[in-house]
Structure prediction request, 216 residues.
Amino acid sequence: MILAPSILAADAARLGEQVSCTERAGAKWLHIDIMDGHFVPNLSFGPGIVKALRPVSNQFFDVHLMIERAEKYIEPFANAGADGITVHLECVKDMDGCLALIRSLGKKAGIAINPDTPADGLLRYLDKIDMALVMSVFPGYGGQKYIRDVNEKIRFLRAAAGPEFRIEVDGGVNASNIKDVYSCGADVLVAGTAVFNEDIDGSVKALLHICGNTEN
Ligand code: DX5
Ligand code: ZN
Prediction:
């Protein structure tokens, strides 16, 4: 199981220090939520945040583009230091072009689907992506409640994609549900609010331990 702390929930005034804490505690990925105020009703970060954090962490930078016109920003995020770039099925017009661009830049490619988007829309892309991101909240904000209906989608995708394929789940994951989500077949788990609190080290270690990992 890979834990991917989401910096949307971090203290922006102490971001570097908090990211380092997650890495020391065993989180091998860092989830970086990019929002444009159009595809989602919120604004977050630009490529500059990836550039600023890159020297601070060796984690896999898992950039989640919740933006329209994603194709315009793939290269800037890749050049800033992203390792993986995930775009939304709901708003990308030329998905094949987008995925080819991400891979041409040497990055891992992902497609995300919202809670109300059927998983079968991903099937035709499974051989062109390195990961599927199943949103378990409607994107835009951290701290929302996990939508349990998506568990069926996770199981469906795991059965369709096989045991080696990366399935990431994002939104409302915490100590009370992470084992359940993991057992549905997710292997990358995003956690924002459940990590960035008064005990970041302890929270990361507890979430990893619940899924039987001390390393991930
Ligand atoms: C929501 C983001 C999620 C969010 C997760 O639009 O994509 O990554 O930050 O935050 P928590 O874990 O607090 O629900
Ligand atoms: Zn996200």
Residues 6, 8-9, 31, 33, 64, 66, 137, 139-140, 142-144, 170-173, 190-194 surround D-xylitol-5-phosphate (ligand 1) (CB under 6 Å).
